[in-house]
Design a protein that fits this description.
Radius of gyration: 15 Å
Helix content: under 10%
CATH architecture: Beta Barrel
Oligomer: single chain
Number of strands: 11
Largest sheet: 6 strands, mixed
Protein name: Regulatory protein
Organism: Streptomyces vinaceus
Length: 112
């Protein structure tokens, strides 16, 4: 699968929505897991601000690779962020977009 590295240098990134378990199947509640490690996958919605533009993106990360308390507004670092193009067809409707995956999401908030 193609992966496009995302350079976050010069961007301000902060938590928009705290981490939540990523579901593989919303109907059954089946949790998505990382194919390599077997760890549960989480999604963290982050506000990505760069060059005067702001956008909320959902980033997938393995549960153990989230560090620090991530509450709304917490500045974070996204290690190894990549974008992956996707496309699917459901009921004759084609959809496409980008999904984002990070090796780690780390709080940049000062402790104390």
């Amino acid at each position: 699968m193609r992966q496009i590295p995302v350079d976050t240098t010069g961007a301000t990134v902060m938590v928009a929505q705290p981490p939540q378990l990523k579901l593989r199947d919303k109907k059954t509640g089946q949790v998505a897991v990382d194919n390599e490690s077997g760890n549960n996958l989480m999604t963290v919605d982050v506000l990505f601000v760069m060059n005067g533009n702001a956008e909320v993106v959902s980033v997938t990360v393995a549960e153990p690779d989230i560090s620090g308390e991530l509450v709304t507004g917490t500045p974070v670092a996204l290690t190894g962020l990549v974008a992956r193009p996707w496309e699917n067809e459901f009921n004759g409707q084609k959809r496409h977009g980008l999904s984002f995956r990070a090796v780690a999401v780390t709080s940049l908030a000062k402790a104390g």
